[in-house]
Amino acid sequence: MAKHKEEKTNVMRVLDQKKIPYTAHTYDPESGIDGVSVARSLGQDPAAVFKTLVARGASGGYYVFDIPVAATLDLKKAAHAVGEKSVAMLPQKELLPLTGYVHGGCSPVGMKKLFPTVFHEASLPVIMVSAGKLGHQIACDPKALLALVRADTADIITEE
User: Fold this and answer.
1) If we measure between CA atoms, which residue out of 129, 152, 131, 157 comes closest to residue 141?
2) Model's pTM, two decimal places?
3) Residue 10, class by beta-carbon neighbours within 10 Å (0-12 exposed, 13-18 middle, 19+ buried)?
4) Are 99 and 106 in contact (CB under 8 A)?
5) Close Cβ partners of 36 (under 8 Å, ≥ 6 residues apart)
């Protein structure tokens, strides 16, 4: 009898290689890829499910920001966190060539290049991010994840 083999994404392979434990989760991307829908379909608190956003700074440098899926990135706070005068969201058509990931499947782990990364400061036992492919998420220890991508933390979301 053939054993069902779990589909591994590049993110999962990187975590396996670095011996960082994680739990893989899948969802139906047809049910909507907005982060709150993904969190709900996985039975997760949207505050613990993070979306990965890529921006370009005034200097031309690229930056990665990870924030809770229901939150909005504050561009002024984000620029301050990375020492830029300003940052602007990367146009969607530039995401795949720059990072190797599509919109809705972008992960801070395993990008083509390690860009300066900032996570919104949060005190969570587990954090969930995209596993680098639509329909796939991973949950792991935030400290291990931040150390892997050499991320800083800061308050980078707009006040509700």
Assistant:
1) 129
2) 0.93
3) middle
4) yes
5) 46, 69, 70
